[in-house]
Structures are given as C-alpha cells and as structure tokens.
C-alpha cells in the first residue's frame, strides 16, 4: 500500500468502514479487534495517522501515549476486571500489520503461552 493511502484505521475513524466502536474522544478511538485473541481484545488508536508506530508517537507526543494507557485502563475496567495486557507490535517482523500506531488491550481469558 502506498504511504499516501489512508490506513484501515483512518478509514474506520472516517466511518468509511464499520467497526464496533467502544470509545471515542478528540484524540483517540477504540474498537473491538476483528480477530480477537482474548475474551476482550480492543484496539486504542490515535486519530492522527501521522505515526506509523508507537515509537514515533512516543517521541513526538508522549502525553498521547499516557492517554492511551489511561484509556486502556478505563476500557479494561468497563469491559473486564480492570487487568489487562497492553501490546504495541512495532515492525513487520514483530507482527505489526497496520502502519498506524495502535495499542492492543487484551483482557479476560488470554491465550496460553504467548505474549500476543
Ligand atoms: P497489528 O498486527 O498491526 O499489531 O494489529 C492490527 C490489528 O488490527 C490486528 O489484530 C487485526 O485483527 C486488526 N484489524 C485489521 N483490520 C481490521 C478491521 O478492518 N477492523 C477491525 N476492527 N480490526 C482490524
């Protein structure tokens, strides 16, 4: 995909693609992962598509990273028992498939013997 094309997440934010949205404010959106790996598997996504991964996001807007963590905590409390795994896949060989920074929030029954 050429870099100029909007990511799948940008298209979800623009409501061009449906998603099960569970949270939204001015800077972030959260929705259920289409291929859940845990009883609760949400994606917390900055609305800006400027950052391909959490590395660029953290360097440019560290407060946005803190906001992602706070939203993850709130969503894990609302949808599960408040305990959660926060995963940022960074780079293709680490499993990143969407080049638009995002956090996986996994809670409830997690897959055994894996970190993702
Ligand atoms: P990554 O592999 O980049 O860390 O995470 C991308 C995640 O986005 C994957 O877990 C994948 O299941 C999810 N995903 C990909 N396309 C869609 C979509 O169209 N809708 C939703 N809700 N999730 C998606």
From TrEMBL:
InterPro entries, A to Z: Histidine_triad_HIT (IPR001310), HIT-like (IPR011146), HIT-like_sf (IPR036265)
Query: HIT domain location, by residue?
Result: 8-115
Active site (catalytic residues): 102 (tele-amp-histidine intermediate)
What Gene3D superfamilies does the entry give?
Answer: HIT-like (3.30.428.10)
Query: GO molecular-function annotation terms?
Result: catalytic activity
Q: Where is this motif: Histidine triad motif?
A: 100-104
Where does the source fall among the domains of life?
A: Bacteria
Name the coiled-coil region(s). none
What is an example of a Pfam family matching this protein?
DcpS_C
What PANTHER family does UniProt report for this protein, alphabetically?
A: HISTIDINE TRIAD HIT PROTEIN (PTHR23089)
Q: What is this protein called?
A: Histidine triad (HIT) family protein
Q: What species is given as this protein's source?
A: Glaciihabitans tibetensis
